[in-house]
Amino acid sequence: MKAQPLLQAPLKRRRGPRVAVLALVLCSLLVPFAFLFDRAPSGGGYVTTEERHRQEVVLPLVDHVVVERRGRGGAVSGGRQDAPEKISRGSSEVIHRHAPEKRISKGSPGIVDQHKQIDSHSKPKVLPAPKVKPSKAAAESTRDPREISKNTQVRQKGAKADETEKAKACQLEFGSYCLWSREHKEVMKDSVVMRLKDQLFVARSYYPSIAKLQGQEALTQEMKQNIQDHERVLSVSTVDADLPSFINKRMEQMERIIARSKSCTVDCKNVDRKLRQILDMTEDEAHFHMKQSAFLYNLGAQTLPKSHHCLSMRLTLEYFKSSSLDSDDSPSGKFNSPKYRHYVILSRNILAASVVINSTVSNYKEPGILAFHILTDAQNFYAMKHWFARNSYKSAAIHVLNYEAIILEKLPKYSIRELYLPEEFRVLIRSIKQPTENTRMQYLSVFSHSHFLIPEIFKYLNKVVLLDDDLVVQRDLSFLWNIDMGDKVNGAVEFCGLKLGQMRNVLGKTAYDPKSCAWMSGVNLINLDKWREHNITENYLLLMKKFKIKDEQSLRAAAFPLSLLSFQHLIYPLDEKLTLSGLGYDYGIDEEVAQRSASLHYNGNMKPWLELGIPDYKKYWKRFLVRGDQFMDECNVNT
Question: What's an example Gene Ontology biological process for this entry (predicted)?
């Protein structure tokens, strides 16, 4: 009787481990099925592609400013041409309201690791094939034709909207390069070859998984045969013209095989990984090539053409060979006389300055009262001087000055001793209310640091007209001298699409009127007496100290806020019809509008003397180009 409890105690101790073992075996059988059928959108389980898409949270960034300084095309300089600078600061103000949206995806992390843990202990389960749905063509054949047409229009509209969004995103990152590349888009000669490669990669992605399925031996063999056929064709074909005549049938056959493979239940992890690899590789490669092309585009926009460089060198050598070297460089009385109409041009480009002067003189009723002052750098001074000595522009007087020598000898107290041309900035503007519709890009050109020393250089003048060297004059500008600007200093065309109140983060803590409009250089009527009276140059130097100037890039970038702040409440608005801007980046300017404008401003990267220039607008510039010069023919400038 006493031995019975001793026998029962061990039996009770064994019951717990048995239950635990049975539970573990049952869990090991159920866990793979749970992961195959689980659709829970929580962060710890398997998340399908559709669920990830639905959980994608779009957070629009706060509007911020992006000011991008653009290089001047065709400038000859002793130093290197730096790439455009981009300044980005978080704020609610806008020079550019074109911020990309930040996308955050939930549930994505950890998916691959979980699969590794599960699949390492279990073989893929073969599930019954899902029911094959009728094809789209069969479904649409039973629908109303009007409904089909309506859906087609909706799809086309959506495709256009996507293309517009891509174009805007491209302009945000690469600027006018996107406009240029779209206009010069070449027809693909290997589009069918690319489709063959895409089919081949998709088929290769599915083949290992299909080969493991039981009962799919025929599909496996057929897919293998088609993969080999595609490889054989691609090995001898690089463009569409090399493809055999039966290639369309092969492509249709491969499409059917891929569709059958997609209908099979396979291990999606391997297929997904391979397809994502090619997607990432393709996107990275495309972005790399776009960055490379944009760099070369900007390099071409900032480089003087070889023929222009040749012309400059030949003129410089000829100057030192000629007797003009010993001539008197002192200006005649007409260059200081208030009786003449004085125009000032800052330029390093001989032909650009020549076109500005020639177009102005050709449209002037009394060219004998015109006096042009060209400020250039030391490198181009002698070439510029010899060019205008050997070419006459009716009876207009032309005076070439070495800006750097003047600052060094007569104005040594100023630190800005290098000649700076008008600075150009790319401005992206997006409406807060309709961000996808009202997005536009503008190029604003403003005064450089060299402009603020003009009153000191021309002490005996009381009024001048400043002309940019990328300008073509088409009308008589004599009416400018009859304008009474009152107490204003700078007569300019205003750009009220951008106001100072939208640029608080760019303008700093300096006091300003938020309702004041931005303005543009190009054709500017300057009252030098009022300039000196309002101490514009001194105020400009004081404002410059408030900005952190670290290097030349930051110095040139500061020209934008300094120009806008220095002439606050001192801008006299000129008629918008005086200057038509955008011929250096806008392909959509109407020809009639261009012909009616008093002047054409080629602001932007695509200057008319560059190969990148917009072909439809080059004719206005070439019309005033000097013809028949010996050096131009020898340097092939006309071609």
Answer: cell wall organization
